[in-house]
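Blinded run. Sample ID left blank on purpose so nobody reads anything into the name before looking at the predicted structure. Input follows.
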Amino acid sequence: MTNSHTRHFTAAIMAIFFCITNQQAFTVGSAQNQNSNTQVEKPNDQKKNNEIQVAPPTDQNKNTKPSTPVETIDLDKERPVDVGASAQNAPMESEITPATEESVQRGLRYLAGLQNDDGSFGRGQFAKHAGITALCGLAFMADGHLPGRGAYGDNVRKALDFVLSSATETGLLAAENSHGPMYGHGFATLFLGEIYGMNNEDARVRDALTRAVELIINSQNQEGGWRYNPVPYDADISVTICEIMALRSARNAGIKVPKETIDRAIAYVRSCQNSDGGFRYMSTSGTSLWPRTAAGVASLYYAGVYSDNSIDRGLNYLQDSVNPDAGGNSGEAHYFYGHYYAVQAMYLAGGKRWTTWWPNIRDEMISKQAATGGWMDYQAGQAYSTSMALIVLQMPKRYLPIFQK
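Blinded prediction complete.
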């Protein structure tokens, strides 16, 4: 792999937390001027520090948001019988061992201790990050804790309050220090979708979730993907999976998602697959890597694609590259990001792929836990890595709605 490709992928992952500093903000177009040219302005003193404006589509991108109502895709459609069942209704024996549960509980205790007074998670350059806070909230929810309910209910409630406080008038979910914020927006939208899917009585959540989904729909580019900023210009597969998963969660919770948005996203993901079955960073030429391949396969499943040659080829590439039983080695680069999506892909594939994959990653992840109870990632911080590890280890609990449909 060339140094150029390595730099591209590292930039993609690290954009979850910080990206190229942008001193300009983009204005929001109303329905009346939606097709006007994009304008750029600097934020005035009246605007909140964390408000990142969103550009309306230009004439060449005006089809990004259809002007007339469109059919909503049935993301909960019945899975074809010939594809086989996912692991949802087919738990394997000893999926969750005593060692697994002990590791999870140690991890949750450690994660709770990382929460800041304002409800956010993350320190230093990753402080007050809506995306990291959302992932931490999901880690608690994966053990059945909800706002005000369960031993970590207050932690989830405070995380939710922080994410809601990060919402801008445009619908963007981003803390004040976020640049290139669509990664964090995707994770935060997923968090709100899971919250709303478990309790649809909170009007604050529904409002923020609805506006967050509209922003995702409006910022899809002509290829069908998304990238760092909420403007419909370019795309990469790493950001795109975040938005697809967020849309799936929102749709599961009853929020309408246009069929056209999903269909175009599917086409974009497919355009990023190489002949070896792996996925590249963008639709243009590039090398395959296992973390983004895991993301690519998972995104197809979440978009409602169950029987497809792209999925089979991607799963084969993933197993050959990573699974210890196949002589693979996942290595340390983007380890938690990759396994966060890989475990979902194998869970959704079900059958032998799941029963082969799960015991290996479960035991490997437990072995990487520190004496403190957390997991270490020297690039992104312990709140990020610990939350990702906990979501992976709690996959078989099947508490989160996204893993039930």
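Unblinding after everyone has recorded impressions. Confidence is low (pLDDT under 50) at residues 1-53, 57-76.
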